[in-house]
Each structure stands twice: as structure tokens, then as C-alpha cells.
Fold this sequence. Notes:
By secondary structure, this protein is an alpha/beta fold. The chain contains ten helices and nine strands.
Amino acid sequence: MTENQPPTSPAAGDAGGYDAVVLAGGAARxxxxxxxxxxxxxxxxxxxxxxxxxxxxxxxVVVADPRPTARPVTWAREDPPGGGPLAALAAxxxxxxxxxxxxxxxxxxxxDGRTVDRLLSTLDTAxxxxxxxxxxxxxxxxxxxxxxxxxxxxxxYLHRTLASLGTEHGxxxxxxxxxxxAALNLTRISDPVASFDCDTWDDIATARARIREHGHVLxxxxxxxxxxxxxxxxxxxxxxxxxARDAAHGVARPAAPLTTFLVGYAAARAGGSPExxxxxxxxxxxxxxxxxxxxxxADDAKSAPATDPRPDAG
Length: 314
């Protein structure tokens, strides 16, 4: 689902929310000019994976030509197109209003909401404790190199520094990101996984292989299905897996997928909340348990010694 949403206007000084600017208009030369934001990893476009990580942003601005996306966004474009990351960032910032701005590239397959929360909470803490306060928080990769497009910044410092650089250089077109980061007071945190970006086809292959590892594949699959179906609901997958197991063992193997489907349908009719899913799962699991108990009782009856129902003679 894609639409142009107007930027929100939070009250000045309201630190409870944030806006996000996603830069998705690069040339992808190391991918042979492929449409990198649209490349799929785990069945989802890289851009959609990044949008899922910042789903609770008040306004999400994607700086690129419009395209279908799984979540609603505001579209922006630097002038001229292809003017580089600083020009793109400045274009995206014009549509934001929050005090905190998350700045992301569109090629981060392993970025998630927990990393976003960590960036924002570190920005809050650094602003309170650091001398003079921090202007931003950036992730570093395994080599210790800054990743300024996986970062949270204070919007006023971004605006001020970009304006200064534009004045100094006669515009922002073609300027490198390092000019921005060099002018800001930054706090750094390490996250080797979330900072992984996809610049080459080898990187894409690595990302695709990693999400199919045993420890990741189920969460990745559930996230992909929710995006595909437009479902924005956190559910306890462990409860559903336990229910599927009980239905398969206590009733019949085909009962597992059908039961979980019916639980989802019932939960949707009840409002679709996590609590509704849990309640429907509880009822179905109890039913599967009763079914299994009856089956066990029937087996016991079959194996019990036969008795003569006639009264004793004599």
C-alpha cells in the first residue's frame, strides 16, 4: 500500500515521537544499476524491510521516485535527482516535524524495531548526559566504521548543518556524507548485524542465506507473511505453534493448519488484538486436549480385559 501522507506536526519539544527519512534513490552501480530498494531478501523488498523497522514513526519520508510499498509513506525527491545523499536528506527533512529524525538507507535487511529503539533511547540519554549534548547517534559496522545512514539525529542540528554546508559549498549536490558527520557531535554504538548493508550481489546472497538459518527463518517468514497480507499485529508465535502441535497430535495432522486458520479468523472477528488471538488459541487448545483425552479413554477401554455382563449362575 502506497500513498502520500501529509507530515504530522507534533508539538515543539515533544520527544515522544520521531520521524524517519529513508534514502532510496541511489544509482546502485555495484549492483549493475539494478533497482536495489526493490531487490527481495526473504521474499520482501529491501525497502519494505526497512519501512517495517520504523513502522511507528509519525511520518516516514522516502526520498526516491514513488513505487508500491507495504506501508504508507511520504515521497520526496532532491532537485536535481541523483544529487547525492546530503541533497536527498535535505529534501526528505522538509517533510518532517519531529525533534528526532531517524535517517536510514534502503538496503538494510537486518534492521529491526529493537535497533531503532536503541538508537532513539541512546540519543535521549546522550543528550542528557554528554557535555553539550549529542547531535546524533550512529551505528558502527564490525570494522568500527560509522554508518551515518543508520542513525538517529536531532532535527535542528541536521537543518542547521545542512544549511551551513549548502552555503559554504554553493549547494548540497554531490557533497559526501562525511562532511555532515564531521560537523556533528556524535555518539556511536555497535551493531554488526543491523549495520549490514547490501552494496553488491554477494551481499544480497549473504543476506538471503542468513535469514534461512535455523534460528532466523521462522521469524523472517512470519514477518514476510504479515507484510504480504497487510497485517500489523504482534502475536505469540509460540502459542500458535503449541496449538498446531496439540491439534496434530490430539486430532490429526491436517488439523494443525486448519485450526490455526480458524483461530485467526475468530480473533479477527473479535477485534484482532493480541489478546483476542491468545483467547481463541486458549479455547482451541483446551478443545484439542479434551479431544485427546477422549481418544485416550477410548484406547483404554479397548485394551481393558473383557468381562461377562451376565450375572453369575447358581
